[in-house]
Amino acid sequence: MFVRRFSLRDFRSWDSLTLDLVPGTTVFLGSNGHGKTNILESLGYLSTLSSHRVSSDAPMIRNGSASAFAGATVVNSGRELTIDVELIEGKSNRARINQSPARRPREVLGILQSVMFAPEDLSLVRGDPGDRRRYLDELLTFRIPRMAAVRADYDKVLRQRSALLKTAGGALRRGSGSGENVLSTLEVWDGHLAAHGAQLLAGRLELVHDLAPHLAESYRSIAPESRPASMRYRSSFGTSLDPEFTDPTRIPGIDDVAYLEERFHHELSVMRTKEIDRGVCLVGPHRDDLELILGDSPAKGFASHGESWSFALSLRLAGFALLRTEGSDPVLLLDDVFAELDRRRRRALAAVAATAEQVIVTAAVPEDVPDELEAAKFGVEASETPEGRISRIVSKDWSATTDLSEGVENRD
Ligand SMILES: Nc1ncnc2c1ncn2[C@@H]1O[C@H](COP(=O)(O)OP(=O)(O)OP(=O)(O)O)[C@@H](O)[C@H]1O
Questions:
Q1: Which of 10, 11, 16, 34 to mutate to test the pocket of ligand 1 (most atoms within 8 A of CB)?
Q2: Given the CA of residue 59, which atom of ligand 1 is nearest to it?
Q3: pLDDT given for residue 341 in this prediction
Q4: Which residue has the least CA distance to atom 8 on ligand 1?
Q5: Which CATH number covers residue 194?
Q6: What is the pLDDT of residue 375?
Q7: Phi, psi of 379 (to 5 degrees)
Q8: Which of 71, 72, 73, 280 could share a disulfide with 84, CB 3.0–4.6 Å?
Q9: How many domains would you assign to the chain?
Q10: Residue 46 Cα, ligand 1 centroid: separation in angstroms?
């Protein structure tokens, strides 16, 4: 698939931009802090409804504006769909598909599939479990779009159940009669949590099973002199779950969801007193992790800086390879990453990028982009204006390269 056109309004440093793109590699070039990453972030947002840099939407709205807009026309096997999202300060976001309002923004998920590799990805290896869960869930949603609804339902039940756990703790400590009522309501929420959680968990386990060989292969090609890379899902269910279930080589079965739902229920009953004491939900997919292993050791806290980079890149390339084997052709978004890589890893990444239908790259200077990637180039420059610092596409002399910014308007 490829993005044929995209538009921004009041998105970070871009007050207004409409740009036509083509398949192949497109590079946005400019000095630090001029607005290149903001472009990739907006495409990533249209793809996943979240930013790779911030956990809330507010920072993406241009300073002084009440809302931001990002839209893209995506061509997938000859079929064109236009999606757009409006981020509104203090209100729910709005999304449209082919100009028609979507009932929920998450309906746009899956239309623009992308894999982004960015400096922030080091946190996949070194950061908190939440970063790795997000990595898994984004891929899962591309594979199985209905998983976006399962995740949303799970999060909703989790919030309600957590609030109830706090109430239950208070009521039982006071010895009030309402404690009994709260406990029976908790049973109902346990059922909902286990039902949604089991689906999410089964989806993640199947994903890890399918992803693991691609990870091993990607890491081998990037860092052949290093130890082998592997992954394993770590469940918060403890001994309630047969360890065989998290073995990435185990072939998922059709009864998995039912088994996991039953185990989830069981684990909730085991943890009941502890959960009420603490007032939080202690087990479930929201407490799980993806273990990344280098040789026989956990990559986190053990891998060198270079190995961690290779691991993070391999995770992204593994996701890209998996989606491609399943018939999808995600857009590859590479945020200023070539300058960070040594020659071997640059070549490995360039080789994969050359096979993608569309690659969008940011770089400070043309020399940062490997020669193997024939690229169309746009210059990006920000300047101070009465409305603040605003980014623009500018014409540059790239000498002997294709400068597409000639004639491009930063249109309304
Ligand atoms: N909400 C916002 N409103 C206005 N400007 C913003 C907002 N958020 C970020 N910016 C501006 O965007 C610019 C940073 O843009 P971006 O991160 O895209 O830079 P970049 O060109 O990718 O730089 P680097 O090469 O250093 O990564 C900064 O000037 C910052 O002040």
A1: 34
A2: 1
A3: 86
A4: 12
A5: 1.20.1050.90
A6: 87
A7: -90, 140
A8: 71
A9: 2
A10: 18
